[in-house]
């Protein structure tokens, strides 16, 4: 291994950025002294700063082991060189490095690349015996995500945006801004890679960064903290409502109309979504209008049924609300009723 460059110490004292990251780790209980943390390293500024901060925390005994992984999506001609730059950085910081190549099918490339990346991160964590996977999402990413979802319309679930912790995944930079990240990297003399696609106005996300965030900063210079706080609060609300919905989903399933009618609408909606997920195992949620249609069954005097996506249906009758596949004859009837193509 190459010689270790002292990172995150300025004049013998620990950099303020590292202290702030440590506070987030403690406050949000992201990992402890026994954990092996695997950093998802793109080579961009955020994950580079994350790696350097966690290397300093490893030296201070705040975690047991640190390693890093770069996933090469093979989507850009220079992608192998990016992996090499990550390997170099890890050698400089004395951190064990893994690289993984994945194939991304054509189509919705961004979302497919993300799915392939998270699958690869989990596989490497398993092989390396890592107990946490850390990504470089910052408070600025959080604000962008909240705004992006707000523009399309979302409830508490969506506006809760990026969680600091989910399963193995942790995000120790979620209380730090992109500006703080850059200042830290400059102070430490650390190199990073710029992603050219971050500049393209083709993506709404980039326009939010370049146009909307500066406009909002003129109304409230601390709007980023404000949005992050909103996301934290909504995530807590969402969790509380989900807990109640889990308890009350039975009232819907057993068609207990009297009980269903007194449940708050927010709980009823969540309970329908839970039943849909349990019945279909589908990652795709039910649209708001379908949720309302299912709830509408409880307003009728007698039994009823409605069609749902994926040839599914919801039937309310007797003492059950049933969500499942439509019977063959009903599908055949519907197909006969459809206008011929061409
Ligand atoms: N190719 C990759 N390999 C490993 N981890 C990645 C990769 N791309 C992204 N990540 C992880 O996901 C996080 C968020 O991804 P995003 O695409 O927003 O990052 P980026 O802008 O490419 O780089 P960074 O967040 O490091 O500045 C990154 O901070 C990093 O932890």
UniProtKB/TrEMBL annotation:
Coiled coil: none annotated. Residues 36-211 form the tRNA(Ile)-lysidine/2-thiocytidine synthase N-terminal domain. It catalyses: cytidine(34) in tRNA(Ile2) + L-lysine + ATP = lysidine(34) in tRNA(Ile2) + AMP + diphosphate + H(+). Signal peptide: none annotated. It is an enzyme of class 6 (ligase). Pfam families: ATP_bind_3. It is found in: Cytoplasm. ATP binds at residues 42-47. CDD domains: TilS_N (cd01992). Its EC number is 6.3.4.19. Keywords: ATP-binding, Cytoplasm, Ligase, Nucleotide-binding, tRNA processing. Ligates lysine onto the cytidine present at position 34 of the AUA codon-specific tRNA(Ile) that contains the anticodon CAU, in an ATP-dependent manner. Cytidine is converted to lysidine, thus changing the amino acid specificity of the tRNA from methionine to isoleucine. The N-terminal region contains the highly conserved SGGXDS motif, predicted to be a P-loop motif involved in ATP binding. Belongs to the tRNA(Ile)-lysidine synthase family. This is tRNA(Ile)-lysidine synthase.
